[in-house]
Amino acid sequence: MVNYRKILEMYFEGVSQRTISSSTGHSRNSVSEVVQRAKKLGVESLSDTMTNSWLETFLFPEKQAIEKGYFPIDWEEVHKELQKKNVTLSLLHHEYTTVAREGGKIPYAYRTFCEKYGKYAKKYKLTMPIRRKPGEIMEVDWTGSTLHIIDRSTGETIPAYVFIATLPYSQLSYVEAFLDMKSPNWLIAHIHAFEYFDGVPETLVPDNLKTGVTKVLRGEPLLNEAYRELADYYRTVIVPSRVRKPKDKPSVEGTVGYISRQIIASLRNYQCFHIDDLNERILEKLEEINTIDFQKRPGSRKKVFEEEEKSHLQQLPQTRYKLAEWKTAKVQLNYHIQVERMYYSVPYDYVREQVDVRLTTDLIEVYFKETRIASHKRLNGEVGQFSTNVDHMPDNHRLYLEHNPENNRKWAETIGPSMVQFVSYILEVNAEKKALSMLSTLRNLSTKYTNKELEKATHTLLEISTNPTISVLKGVLDRSKKRKQKSNIDSQKNNNNDHGFTRGAEYFGGNKK
């Protein structure tokens, strides 16, 4: 058996391959093959766990398969294929099985195939690297370091917080500075990143910050509603990294350090007075980073992105996402909610309930248990303004609100010209509050009399009185009602016949022709 460990120990100590061959008793070709295979697989030092049998399995896995009669597998090729989009171990095992059986060989079972690949991947760099596929993920985060701008009027230094988005496959990044890390800027940063990449990845991987994740319940993250809405609009999903697990988003974590050195550190002494000016400088530095060639890989971030990844991103929607923010509010006893010191009505049935409020630049929508119950144009300007929908009021409140001079004139028009003249007279002669009280009494008469009776009585009132009042109108209506009742009684008396039943000519056949 070849002494792999002895060969590599001597090689790492700087012993020549000729001397190693003489010392171990193996041919120079065997020594050279072991050394070259170790170089290819990245073995640069030996640990206690790397026994002779371990090294044999790791360096020459195909020999193990051949010895046991199984069709050998090129694990390096499997490793490369898994980096491609939509390629899985199941698919690669199926292809391997097909080739093996066509050649009359015995293939490994799927479970053994996966176990052996796991061992290979683990040995590849002593930790199992996660090979991202193009267009699969965008990792996002705020950097720990900040930049700053200067207030022109006070000379005060204002911190600028730096947002980073990275595509792990190509390592292409987007960087932008903001004056705060609140939800609106968090969403704007994502929109700008999508537009910079000219596409949308399948998955977003943020940290568990409040602008992205409201809380974690039993291990399941509860997403910020505005963030979830943005993801739905761009047809992507959000998978937050686990708490205190930076390896869940290693690309952006690594980029944060790199950006901190290449951009933030280089601009630490740059003085500017506006955030747009600072972002112009950041963009210049970012373009340099994205176009510089890799050290251990052919091409640059931008070149790899354009040639291999861009086509895998989803297309942007035709219109940009309309920024929204979500808040909660409690419905007050006056059936209004307070949002940013403005008041908006909701149906009075929801008094004292907790509701969700969706805010855009020009609209406010109110939701109760995911059902929209109200919407208003967003109020701006002086605080304390009210936006009230009459349909949200109880009936008695609505009637009180609608009891005004204009509505009373409209009501009079439905009765007739005499009533219009009478209502106008009441409004002109009396103070508005007293006039509205009188008109309330007048309108109550419409529940007892028809429009025709009211119009006729009002016409009579205006003819007989130069100072018409509602009490006189009531008298006219009462007398008219009594006259009508008396007339009905007299008519019934005249129609009564006291001579019993009289058979007509038809009964006796007198009308026969």
From TrEMBL:
List the InterPro entries hit by this protein, alphabetically.
Integrase_cat-core, IstA-like_C, RNaseH-like_sf, RNaseH_sf
Region ranges (Disordered)? 481-513
Query: Could you tell me which residue ranges the Integrase catalytic domain spans?
Result: 130-310
Name the PROSITE patterns for this protein.
INTEGRASE
State where composition is biased (Polar residues).
488-499
Family per record: Belongs to the transposase IS21/IS408/IS1162 family.
Instruction: Kindly provide the name given to this protein in its UniProt entry.
Output: IS21 family transposase
Gene giving rise to this polypeptide:
istA
